[in-house]
Amino acid sequence: MEFAPKYFKEEFKSLRENLINDLINMSEGEMIKLGMRGIAKKSALSHLFQSISTEGKATDLYEKLKLIYKCMTDKELDCIGRLSGVADKHLCIHRAILRNEDNDFTNTINSFQDTLQEGDIILMCGNSISSASLLMYQRCFSYAKAKSSHVAIVHADFICIDAMPDIGVTNRLVSEILSNAVDGWRVIRFRNLQNEDRHNIQLRCTYYLNQPYKIIPKYSSNKHTSYCSELARKVYADSKIAGTNISKNMLIKPCDFDKLIDTDGNWEDVTDKVMPFIKFCIEHESICKHISKLFISGLQLNYSRSIERQCALKHIKIQLNKGKISNDEANREIKKINEIEYKMNHVFWKNKDKDKSE
C-alpha cells in the first residue's frame, strides 16, 4: 500500500539527511528504549519512507519500525496516538497506518481527483472584530467587493504557509487556516502553472519560514519581514511566474487578490472543486496533523541547522581576526561548511550568501 501524498515523496529525500541519520544506526533494542514518547515523535516515518525512497537505509528503517509497530498491542499504539494528538475517533486509522494496513483514510485521500495544489491561494475573512474592521476598511477605500482579510498559500498537499501577527511566517494545516473563517472563503489558482513553477513555489514558501510579521509598505520585497498578502506576492514574484498580474502597489492587501480573481481570467476559483478534499482534511485534522509533523519539523530542523552553519562561519572569521587560527585553517573550515550548505535543497531568508532564486 502506498500512502505518501505526492509532495512528501519528493520532499523527504532532502529532509532525510537531517532527520534520520541517528535512527538508521539504532538497533531495534535501542529504538524500543526510546520509549512511547520517543517513538511517537518518529511515528510518521513508518508509513512515509517506503514510498518516498528505495534506498537501503530508508528501507531498513521502515522495516524496523514496521516490525516494532506490528508487535505492539492496540493499547500501546493508541497511547502513541494520543501522545501525538490523534483524536480518539481516529485511533483505529492511526493503528492501521502505523501497521501499514489498509484503511479508509489512506484509500480516500488517495482517491481525490481534485486536491489542493502547491501555489493555490486561500482567501478568507476571520471571525474577529479586527478582521471585520479590515474588511470594512478595504471595501471603503480599496475594493468595494472585498471579501477577505487574510491570505494563505498552499505549500504542500494540505499544508499551508501564512504570516500572522506575533507568530510570523509558519506552516499550518488548511484546517487550522480555516478554523476561524467566516463563510465565503475561496481557493484561487493561477491557470498556467507548470510542474517546475510548483516546485519553485514550494522552495520559496520554505525560504520565508520564520520571518517576523510586520507591515512595511514597499514596492520591492521586504527581505526580513512579511505580512500575509505580501508573502503571497513575494513567493510568486521570486518564482518568476509571468502573467499573474498580482498587484505591485506599495501596500498589497487581501482585497487585491479578491479583485484579481473577480477580474482576471488567468486565475480560476477552484473552491467547489477542492471543497470535498478540504472537508475531508478538516474531518481528519488530527491524522493530517500527525502525518505532517515530520514535514514541518523537518523544515524547522533544516532552518535551525542553516542558522547554526551561519553562526559557525561568523565564529571562524572572528577567530581568524583575533589570530587564534591561521588562514589555512579558516579556509578549510569555511570550505567544509560551504560544501554542506550547497548540498542542501533548502535555502532560507537568513542565509545571505546563497539564494537559488537569484
Q: So what's the CATH class of the largest domain?
A: Alpha Beta
Approximate strand percentage: 5-15%
Helix content: 55-70%
Structural class: alpha+beta
Low-pLDDT segments: 1-55
The arrangement of helices and strands along the chain is HHHHHHHHHEHEEEHEHHHEHHH
The main sheet comes to: 6 strands, antiparallel
Number of strands: 6
Radius of gyration: 22 Å
User: What is the number of helices?
Assistant: 17
In quaternary terms, these chains amount to single chain
How would you sum up the global shape?
A: flat
Spatial order of the strands forming the largest sheet: 4-3-2-1-5-6
Query: Whole-Å distance between the termini?
Result: 40 Å
The second-level CATH architecture of the largest domain is Alpha-Beta Complex
Count of separate structural domains: 3
Write a brief structural summary.
The protein has 17 helices and 6 strands.
Write the layout of secondary structure elements.
Elements (H helix, E strand, L loop, with lengths): L5 H14 L1 H4 L3 H6 L1 H7 L3 H8 L3 H16 L2 H10 L7 H8 L5 H6 L11 E4 L4 H13 L8 E7 L2 E6 L3 E6 H4 L8 E5 L4 H13 L20 H11 L15 H10 L3 E3 L1 H13 L1 H37 L5 H17 L15
Antiparallel strand pairs: 1-2, 1-5, 2-3, 3-4, 5-6
Helix pairs in contact: 1-5, 1-16, 4-7, 5-6, 7-8, 12-13, 16-17
Could you describe the 3D structure shown?
- Helix 5 (45-52) runs antiparallel to helix 6, helix 7 (74-83) packs across helix 8 (91-98) and helix 16 packs antiparallel against helix 17.
- The two termini are 40 Å apart.
- This protein has helices at residues 6-19, 21-24, 28-33, 35-41, 45-52, 56-71, 74-83, 91-98, 104-109, 129-141, 174-177, 195-207, 228-238, 254-263, 271-283, 285-321, 327-343; strands spanning 121-124, 150-156, 159-164, 168-173, 186-190, 267-269.
- A hairpin with a 3-residue loop joins strand 3 (159-164) and strand 4 (168-173).
- It folds into 3 domains: 6-109, no CATH class; 121-281, endopeptidase fold (from Nostoc punctiforme) (Alpha-Beta Complex), CATH 3.90.1720; 287-343, no CATH class.
- By secondary structure, the protein is α+β, with helices and mostly antiparallel strands.
- The protein has a 6-stranded antiparallel sheet with strand order 4-3-2-1-5-6.
